[in-house]
Here is the input.
Amino acid sequence: MSNTRFFAKESYGVRMKKKKLNIAFAGGGTGGHVTPISSLIQYANDHKQLSEQIQQMYRFGSTGQMEEEFASKHDSVIFVPIRSGKLRRYWTIKSTLENLRDVAYFNAGYVQSLWYLQANKIDVVFCKGWYVAMPVVFAAASLRIPVIVHESDIHAGLVNSIAAKVAKKSFDGFPGVLKESTHVGQILSWDLLEKDEELDLFTIQPGKKTLMVMCGSQGSEAVFKRILEELDSEWQIVKNLNIVIVLWVLNTSWKKKFETHLNVTTYDFLNHHELATLFEIADVTITRGSATTLAEMEYFDLPKVIVPLPSHDQPLNAKRYAQHHDDIVVAQDNMWELFKAVKFHLDHPRKKKTRKTDIFAAHKAIWESLLGDK
Here is the structure.
């Protein structure tokens, strides 16, 4: 398949019309890979000058995972299910067998991607990372379809490190992460600009400081257990706080454990309009080290106690925020320091800055590259 930019004549030798493009988005696994793609798609839908240049958007990903769920929120997107394997970079008998199995999955995903990219006449592929993007990137490279990459973390993941070698253009959220990449910051959600005035906040008592807890669905139990221990103690600072906890889908079983405490409000799920409302009123937050989430909170000058997942790139993200934004990092195996860090932020409140960051800087740069001449 040729990916030469085609033009159709409107009148002899006078006007030329650009061909509308078919664009594929690849990446999944976690919210840090999925929500930025969703934000890019919505940005295009909201800007007529972009949407008029697009024939169709396709979302490649795994069936039944977060990427399919988020793709279903956009009527302008067709979801394309593919198989993919995961490379485990530790060596046990079990991991070796799993890697051998997943090589077969990857090969199946590669063949599927070759077929779908050609059948749908894809003009350009955007890669956000994670293993489900790998077969799509390899297939695009085989077909000489341009690839655009964005890396969120301070240390590039395996998939994006490989994808950047064949990419037409690479972008990063932290400077210099990918070789010859352009620094554009994180892909933040457009919904952060508009608060949800109807969000139920009746349990948040005025006059009390508010602690927001948002640790995602992955590995949140250690944080939740520590919060419950403090709530059951006699420490007055915890009892005198409004505590707002976003559980997310996999943690809803914790709701009953928290609802016995009158100063705790739990939400199963919040969209970005609702999150913006809480980011605005919170005095301090406990969070994981997702680069996208940290950037969203920083946009609201929200002091952070960061408990990074130890097995991901999150510790490096957290370290950078501690160095550049006076946030505090608490290791997951040292949870006794958690509320000491919360108290420090409450005793040393951060002044709100005038926002100068263009929340759409990354969107503009990436879409310019996606729709530009190839």
Remarks:
- The two ends are 14 Å apart (CA to CA).
- Confidence is low (pLDDT under 50) at residues 1-16.
